[in-house]
Amino acid sequence: MRNLRLLRAGVRRSAAVTSTPQCFCLGAEPGTVLVGSQYGLVELRPAGDSVSREVSLTADGFLPEDGSGCIVGVEDLPEQESVCVATAAGDILLCNLNTKQVECVGSVDSGLSVMSWSPDQELVLLATGQQTLIMMTRDFEPITEKQIHQDEFGEGKFVSLGWGKKETQFHGSEGKQAAQRKQTVLSWDDGRPRVTWRGDGQFVAVSAVCPETGTRKVRVWSRELVLQSTSEPISGLEQALSWKPSGNLIASTQEKPNRHDVVFLEKNGLLHGEFTLPFQKGQVKVNEMLWNADSTILAIWLEDLKVENSNPNTYVQLWTTGNYHWYLKQSLHFGSLEENRLVSLLWDQENVYRLHILCQGWHYLFYDWHWSTDHGLGENSQHMANVAVIDGDKVLVTAFQHAVVPPPMCTYELQLQQAVNQIAFHTDPKHSGDMAILDADNRISVYRYGESTLVVSWGTVDVSCGSNEVMNPLGLRFLTWLPDDSFLVVGQGQHAAQSVLHHLTAVPHAAGTEEECLNLRLSVPVDGEVISLYCSPVTKTVALQLADRRILKYLWEAATPVLEPWWNSSGSAVQFPYRCVQTSITRISGEEVILGLTDRCRLFVNDTEVASNITSFAIHNEFLLVTTNSHTCQCFCLKNLSVKALQAGLSGATAPNSETLRKVERGSRIVTVVPQDTKVVLQMPRGNLETVHHRALVLAQIRKWLDRLMFREAFQCMRKLRINLNLLYDHNPKVFLENTETFIKQIDSVNYINLFFTELKEEDFTKTMYPSLNDSSNTQPCQHPDQKKVNLICDVMRVAMEHIDPQKYCLSILTAHVKKSPPELEIALQKVHDLRGNIAVQPEFAEEALKYLLFLVDVNELYDYSLGTYDFDLVIMVAEKSQKDPKEYLPFLNTLRKMETNYQRYTIDRHLKRYTKALGHLSKCGPEHFSEFLNLVKDQNLYSEALKLYLSDTQEYKDISDAYGEYLSQKQLYEQAGLIFARAGIFAKALDAFQSSGSWQQALCMASRLGYTKDKLSNLARSMAGKLVEQRKHAEAAILLEQYTQDYEEAVLLLLEGALWEEALRLIHKYDRLDILETNLKPAILEAQKSQLIFLDSQKTAFLRHKSRLQVVRQLKEKACENQQDYEVPHCPELELLSETSSVVTASDMNSKYSHSNSRISARSSKNRRKAERKRYSLKEGSPLEDIALLEVLGESVRAVETVKDIHVLLKQLVLFGYDEQAGALQQVLEEVLQLMETSVSEIWTPDLQQSSVSPVLGPNSTANSIMAAYQQKRMMPPVVQDPEVLTPPKFNKNLQWKLHLLQ
Q1: Which helix (H) or strand (E) holds 585?
Q2: Are the C-beta atoms of residues 639 and 607 closer than 8 Å to each other?
Q3: How many whole angstroms separate alpha carbon 70 and alpha carbon 23?
Q4: pLDDT, position 208
Q5: What SS3 state is found at 92?
Q6: Mean pLDDT, residues 223-236 taken together
Q7: Which of 1036, 1014, 1035 minimizes the C-alpha distance to 1024?
Q8: Where do Low complexity bias regions lie (predicted)?
Q9: In the chain, what are the helix, strand and coil shares in percent, each to the nearest 5?
Q10: Using an 8 Å Cβ cutoff, are 500 and 493 in contact?
Q11: Higher model confidence: residue 922 or residue 777?
Q12: In what order do the strands lie in the sheet with 216-222?
């Protein structure tokens, strides 16, 4: 649904008017044209270049001086720096334009009618006057020569299947005589062969008049001039011939009895498709046809045939195809003047949409086209989303607001008198359906939507530049209809690189005239060629893009309209980096910007490139929609988006559940976006349409509806497009809860409300599935933080429905009960039961409610719930609707009916496995059922629940406690078991339990309650003291021996064993046993002093050894890091010579080694596995993590010495008994060791090591730059450590005062 929009038009006229141009080609230099005339070769330079080179061919006699000569072909050969010219006399010449030398490289006596070079310029094909073809190389060496007219079909001859000859087949209404009738070539046919190459240069087609049949035949030859196929006899086949560069069809024309057609032939010579030209039979002749380089446009050059007393009119038409329909997109009328007759036309090979035309009067024109979609620019609901397609003298209009009609069909069509070239929609959003149409006669026709047609003449406005105006059929371009009903149109300036902006206003309708006139308000000269013009319907800004990529703003609303540069927010003039073929104006973060898209898919915002893979874009309200080369359609909200964020969004990977992106079919392009709707219309490469509802647009529209409380529209859209209905609530919970009745009344459908209930989930969908594009998502605090979302909605809506009409919304009320968590099935069942018992309600309605409830909930689950209500009528009601056999459930129910109420309920609860409830009912059944009660408690471990059902002074309470205590003892929870026993008065079992748990105080209490004698109590205390000693609890064991067995001597020995010096000294003096001082205490403290000295000495020695080894290991690692930059080096054999350097590995090597070792360990026994865990880091020299093992051991040494500060009490005892020397020695040694360790900590745990433990080089927060920086600073890679605390230095407790001042 695209039209061809004219971007540029160039006109040039040469001073060489003495000769007549005969053919032309494009030069190698951009903008140069080589023209062959009857006297020689002329080069036309680009506009503004005064140099025009000419080579005469009459001087050397290659062309006659009387002007009767003819050049049949011109080809520029850049590699040979010359131009190849073929004359009708048979000469093939090479002309050098610089030296003006002419060399004859070959000559054909019979003359030449055609010279045609292959697309790669490797071969040249000549058609001679003797009806032969000569194939030559680029060096003009003949390859072969063949007759044009061959008797055989060619190598691709069809296989006959024996279905009879062509002559015997059905020949239509004219009969077999028509097939035998002699055909003649058309009278205007010049009889010359026509040659056309396939795009890849592998085949060439030749059309020539067959001497036998008198009609033209098309023969396809290979590159080696081997005949491939011959076309079937085609009556009325004309001279024009062009092979589609993509290679599948050869185009020609055919005059049929009632029409004039363009026909297509396949390579095998058979016809394949056609379309009809918009002329009567015999009205025009087709001189030439040309495909452009990408096979999308077919140019046809036509001339009138029946003209009396004047020269014929000349036309050029541009045809395109889409969805198997051919559209006439542009029509160029050159008039009937002799000087304006066409000589030839060519498509540019590099700029595929540029057409070059040469006229008899040495007028050279070129036109640059590009594709554009002409669509209405409104954004309100009255806008019909019209898209207009040019098709000759018709405009096909499709109103996408009503229906998506696939082309070539349309909603309605407008018929004009002349072929249409441009369409402009009104830029006022209120009149977006109005159209202005510029036809081939430069007349503007205005169509207003819903009114009668107004045809406005343009002929009264003179915009010519002077008397020597060059004929230019498309002198006006970029027709734009401004909001004030005036028009803008761009014309050609006085110079080639200038344009004029014409501002036209309508003259009031004069009486007696059929047509309105347009008055030229003013013409604004533009210093540069205008290549695009856009008027924004929102901001009413008019922007022009010039050929030098500058952007100008036209201030049309000013009293005197002027042009000024477009300034960006930083105050600099905007200039696109590349020429853009589509422009648009929008606002990004409130700033007005211009968007541009190049023909190479690069999208610019002002002068910033935001993407390089965009195939089309459209602005819709505050949204930008784009399609990309990766077959996606992306949508961005520009309201709160910066240009950088847009750039990142278009280039970066998008979240998988992002609403900005959706996949589309390959090659899709945006046609239009329907306003106040969610439809995005896409066109596929073939031409068919697809409508998608882009998630971002859908959600934006739903949010607008919800903000306006238009719940019905939002719900229907969400249901149709499968948007999760949770968004109805999550968008704004407060508003939804306040307008629940409005929601119910608008939806007004039980089924829809039930659908809403069933989709409810606890998650907030505005944060998970549908995060807002412009970050304006719901941020209100939850009004009911203690209540679940689903339960809250169900309760609020249920209350609202019960208030509006409980009977109408009965099924929805049931759904609300069932949807809650946990489901309120009993209430739902009770409501159904009440309905059945209600006389006012019809029985059918109650049955429907029950059926619906069974649909929501599994019937077996519902049966169990009904049984749990203890209402047998309800149970039978549900059971009747289930698949259960009455022989199964009726006897069970009858048995239950006969039981006592509490026991009946106990039986039901036990059947439903509701054991806690069953206990409650069973406890009310009397003492005769207590044994059953106790068995249930033991089976289900319901001891705590059972104890709550009986008073603490009852025998039942005691029995339950006894069972509970035994249960806890089995679980080895002896202390808790003892508490349960003691509380119930079972003191003997409590004593055993407390003894087992080591609670000696509680055990002695129980012994007292049991009335133990003194001896028995002493034995108990002695046995418990032995267990406490085993647990290293010497102080508590001493208390037992002293207080309960009066064995104070043993108590003192225990205290000395536990190094509790002061407590031992107290007991010695309490019981006046000073002899123990000499026998036991003094030897013990001296022994303790010696052992501490030995311990400190060993720790100091080990510390120094490990510290020195750590320094060696680190030096080796640093050396290895300097020498080895690539980390494959650890596998080199040289490293294995040194055990130390083998510990230098990278993190990856270390990981691999440990993964292997761990896999082996996993296969061992658990004992070995525990042992391996204890020895994670090996101290063995050369092991991978030796430095980490050393750090671990050094840390343990420091912590072990730190605990020795407890010798403060020992020092006091040594001083007390006069051992000052031993005490001083011990204090001095400890002080030295501590000082050594404190000074060594900063050397061992270096700041680098501590930093790496905080922020490792490699890790989830690392970047490529941080890793590279770390390596450039030659930081060694931190090892992968399982315990990060190994890398942190141990702490010293400075607050502990352990030293004795008197020893210093």
Answers
A1: strand 582-588
A2: no
A3: 9
A4: 92
A5: strand
A6: 91
A7: 1036
A8: 1155-1165
A9: 35, 25, 40
A10: yes
A11: 922
A12: 194-197, 203-209, 216-222, 227-230
Q: Are 547 and 579 in contact (CB under 8 A)?
A: yes
Q: Is 192 exposed, middle or buried (0-12, 13-18, 19+ CB in 10 A)?
A: middle
- Please tell me the total number of residues recorded for the chain in this structure: 1304
Distance CA 1099, CA 1230 (A): 11
This prediction's pTM? 0.72
The C-alpha atoms of residue 335 and residue 164 are separated, in whole angstroms, by 52
pLDDT at 368: 93
Considering only CA atoms, which of 1209, 1175, 1205, 1211 is closest in space to residue 1193? 1175
| DSSP reduced 3-state for 919 | helix
Confidence (pLDDT) at 449: 79
Query: In the numeric block, which tokens belong to residue 395?
Result: 């405009």
Q: How many CA atoms lie within 13 A of 651 on its CB side?
A: 12
Of 815, 801, 804, the closest CA to residue 754 belongs to 815
The per-residue b/e assignment along 1260-1269, b for 16 or more CB within 10 angstroms, e otherwise, is eeeeeeeeee
Report the amino acid identity of residue 494. Answer: Q
Please check whether residue 6 is in contact with residue 479, taking contact to mean a CB–CB distance below 8 angstroms. Answer: no
Structure confidence by residue, pLDDT tens digits, 1140-1181: 333 433 333 433 333 334 444 444 466 665 555 545 677 788
Residues 770 and 777: their CA atoms lie apart, in Å, by 9
Q: Report the relative pairing of strands 394-399 and 412-415 from DSSP bridges.
A: antiparallel
Question: What does the block give as tokens for 950?
Answer: 């009986």
CA 1189 vs CA 22, 64, 880, 914: distances in Å: 95, 104, 75, 57
| Angle of the 789-804 helix axis to the 810-819 helix axis, nearest 10 | 160
Radius of gyration of the CA atoms of the chain, in A: 51
User: Is the Cα dihedral 1197, 1202, 1207, 1212 positive or negative?
Assistant: positive
CA nearest to 417, candidates 393, 438, 449, 381? 393
User: Which residue in 1230, 1141, 1245, 1250 sits closest to 1194, CA to CA?
Assistant: 1245
Is residue 530 a contact partner of residue 548, using CB atoms and an 8 Å limit?
Answer: no
Residue found by looking up tokens 């994670």 in the block: 1176
Q: Give 517-537 pLDDT, tens digit per residue.
A: 778 888 889 989 999 999 998
* Whole-angstrom distance, CA of residue 716 vs CA of residue 838: 36
Would you say 402 and 437 are in contact if contact means Cβ atoms under 8 Å apart? no
The string of DSSP letters for 261-296 reads: EEEEE-TTS-EEEEEE-SS-TTTEEEEEEEE-TTS-
Q: Name the helix (H) or strand (E) containing 738.
A: helix 733-738
Sheet hosting strand 54-56, strand order edge to edge: 21-26, 33-37, 40-44, 54-56
Task: Confirm if 661 and 633 have CB atoms less than 8 A apart.
Answer: yes
Helices (H), 429-508: none
Is 207 exposed, middle or buried, given 0-12, 13-18 or 19+ CB atoms closer than 10 A?
Answer: buried
Distance CA 347, CA 298 (A): 10
CA-CA distance, 668 to 75, in Å (whole number)? 39
Is the pLDDT confidence value at 50 over 60?
A: no
In this structure, which amino acid lies at residue 571? G
Q: Which residues pair with 456 in a beta bridge?
A: 444, 516
Closest CA to 1086 of 1056, 1047, 1044, 1063: 1056
Residue that the structure tokens 């009344």 belong to: 745
pLDDT in tens, 477-502: 999 999 888 899 999 887 778 889 99
Name the maximum alpha-carbon separation found in the chain. 158
Of 1022, 960, 974, 963, the C-alpha closest to 1002 is 974
In SS3 terms, 538-575 reads as CCCCEEEEECCCEEEEEECCCCCCEEEECECCCCCECE
Q: Could you give the 3-state DSSP secondary structure of residue 235?
A: coil
In this structure, are strands 454-457 and 516-526 parallel, antiparallel, or unpaired? parallel
**Cβ(473)–Cβ(333) below 8 Å:** yes
CA torsion sign for 591, 597, 598, 601 is: positive
Residue 673's closest CA among 349, 314, 339, 377?
Answer: 377
